[in-house]
Amino acid sequence: MRIEKVLIVDPIKGEFTGDVIIENERIKEVIPVDYEKYEQILMPGFVDYHTHSLKGIDTMHAKKEDFEKWANMNFEYGVTSFFPTTVSASKTQILSVIKNLENVGESIDGLHLEGPFINEEKKGAQNPAYIRNPTIEELEEITPEMVKLISMAPERQNFKEALNYLKTKKVRVSIGHSSAGYEIYKDAFKNGVDRITHFPNALSAFHHREIGGTGSALLFDFKVEIIADGIHSVPEFIELTYKIKGADKIILITDSMEAAGLEDGQYELGGLPVTVKEGVARLKSGSIAGSTLLFDKGVRNFKKFTNCTLQDLAKVSSYNAAVDCGIKDIGRIENGYYANIVLLDKDLNVLKTIFKGKEVYNK
Amino acid sequence: MRIEKVLIVDPIKGEFTGDVIIENERIKEVIPVDYEKYEQILMPGFVDYHTHSLKGIDTMHAKKEDFEKWANMNFEYGVTSFFPTTVSASKTQILSVIKNLENVGESIDGLHLEGPFINEEKKGAQNPAYIRNPTIEELEEITPEMVKLISMAPERQNFKEALNYLKTKKVRVSIGHSSAGYEIYKDAFKNGVDRITHFPNALSAFHHREIGGTGSALLFDFKVEIIADGIHSVPEFIELTYKIKGADKIILITDSMEAAGLEDGQYELGGLPVTVKEGVARLKSGSIAGSTLLFDKGVRNFKKFTNCTLQDLAKVSSYNAAVDCGIKDIGRIENGYYANIVLLDKDLNVLKTIFKGKEVYNK
Fold it and tell me: Longest C-alpha distance within chain A, in Å?
């Protein structure tokens, strides 16, 4: 397959016109050609490592065939890699998710456990009944190789032991749903924790006499997940985060719940009822309960909110996430990488998606 | 006068060893010499454009001789330029301060009016009885040439008219004691306002769904006054501000009240009783009421909090303030500038102060 006369956007080499030759599953050759005009933009397929659900299919209940369906539906939004993401649940429920995900393959690169080792004070839409301290025994059971990422609160008892254990298993630890303040962040960062879950939601606030999780995430060299829906944080918050952090430290996610891609109405998240109105998902308490964001919309929003370059957009929408979680051979338009590619028009609408060299979506 | 074998710190040219020749009131020549060792650091004399009082002498009540005494006492702390600063008061009181300051000269470069055109909701230690909207009529009376700077809330009625009028008179406008949020800051910045008073105190808070005055000051290219006492904001807040803004956008101030340089006890600020305990000044309500910070201590703190270079320290402690308010020929160690100089030991303690070529303090 040869894709011709496109604007190629690589997170490392930048933006240039040219052709791309694909052979079998991989990019065989990227050929810069000085075209005067182009109609399409070619970027690495999007990577979403924090997504709970899509169109009614939910990580907590999905069977093998549901996960496969989800992976196929995701191509419409340009997503060629994702981690289904759990919420706080019993060990039995988590093990059941793990079992259902076995041998799914497709564009699912792993599993993200969001909770249950978080802080009740910052539970957001997580069910407090399942929130608990980590133990090495439980971690041994619930972190087989498919688990690549776990969002935890560093103030939980046994956090350090858990962290050390998870390092040996190469599971990435991300701070999320936490009341911790400056001192705990400082300590966690010193111990190698450098990633924040859906910044700045469910973190302690920024104040000038305690900079909190929000300020500490900005002060230290943390990477931060961002939900660019304009609801979880306003556009100018994202603009400021981009200004401070730069493109290398931002990872776009959807944090999508089951109403993503569906109409307003009644849904659930982790066993809790959720009302979606005008695309905003809330618990009865008013807490925001995940998003209904679709990844490509988040990409367009981020561009609009920050006025970033396309190269930076490629970093935040694919490359950074993959490198951060040690997922190899994706996230670049470069010889030898998997041919996971999204073709977009100049307004960044998805026209075509290619997954491992095969066209899997065509508008 | 020739000062020899010192480390010269100029905000523009940086740090180098050498000698400085002073003739009459000015620096005649800066001579770089490659000395292997030095014992003293030579910096531009400190500039404090937000200080209410020192050792019981208060801007609101001081007579001509009090202001002169204040200027002389300030040399001990390395301060060779300052603006006495008012608080919200009646027009009569403000006019009386202006009258008492006439022909004082010395190291007093002008007057800073903090209030009365501020927001009651963010009054801090200002007396609400005197807070009001600006009018051109009042501004005409209370801004003779000596008034160089006025701290105002941009959400006040007539703010834009006042701003336009003050621009014609070359009075700098600084946002302070304000409840305004993102939209008002955006608008103010577009209209040429680019300075913030004692950031982030008495501004609206930073939140991810309204970034407030605190977030807007960081997002837009505002210069910010900082009280580096570790009380008005914690060291890590100042570290983060330095990381985001850089040295070019920070202006150190003391915001000192009359207990500065004195013991703990009972004092007042703008007619309100203030208790100073362990160096922290508070109203009955618990609100912080100015600082007891001495400028040289703030300089040492800023260095400690941020680990900045001495060049950056020279920017934040003199040069930026002077340039910002259009005060000429001070803030640099450079041929032709006024010989306003502070000599420090390696721990940044003041050893000697020179004002317009004359030694005015010697430890």
Answer: 61
CA gap A30, B244 in Å, rounded: 38
pLDDT one-digit tens code per residue, B106-119: 899 999 999 999 99
* pLDDT at residue B106, as a whole number: 84
Q: Is residue B324 annotated as part of the catalytic site, yes or no?
A: no
What structural domains does chain B harbor?
A: 1-45+331-363 (2.30.40.10), 46-330 (3.20.20.140)
Dist CA A49 CA A85 (whole Å): 8
Query: For B254-277, b where at least 16 C-beta lie within 10 A, e where not — what string?
Result: bbbbbbbbeeeeebbbbebebebe
Q: How many CB pairs under 8 A join A and B?
A: 66
Which residues in chain A are contacts of B208 at CB distance < 8 A?
Answer: 200-201, 214, 232-234, 237
Cis before residue A116, ω within 30 degrees of 0? yes
Q: Is the sign of the CA dihedral A152, A154, A156, A160 positive or negative? A: positive
- Is the pLDDT confidence value at A95 over 80? yes
Cα A32 to its chain centre, rounded Å, is 30
Q: Which two tokens stand for residue B285?
A: 């309500």
What's the length of chain B?
Answer: 363
What secondary structure does DSSP assign to A205-247, as a single string?
PPBTTB-HHHHHHHHTT-EEEEE-SSSSS-HHHHHHHHHHH-G
Which among B209, B214, B244 has CB closest to A233?
B209
Q: Two tokens at B222?
A: 């505002």
Q: What is the DSSP letter of B76?
A: G
Is the predicted pLDDT of residue B298 greater than 80, yes or no? yes
Residues B187-210 have a mean pLDDT of: 97
How far is the C-alpha of A220 from the C-alpha of A189, rounded, in Å?
A: 7
Contacting residues of B for A219, CB less than 8 Å apart: 236, 239-240, 243
Residue B272 confidence (pLDDT)? 86
The predicted complex's ipTM stands at 0.93
CB-CB neighbors (< 8 A) of A232 in chain B: 208
Other Cβ atoms less than 10 A from the Cβ of B208: the count is 21
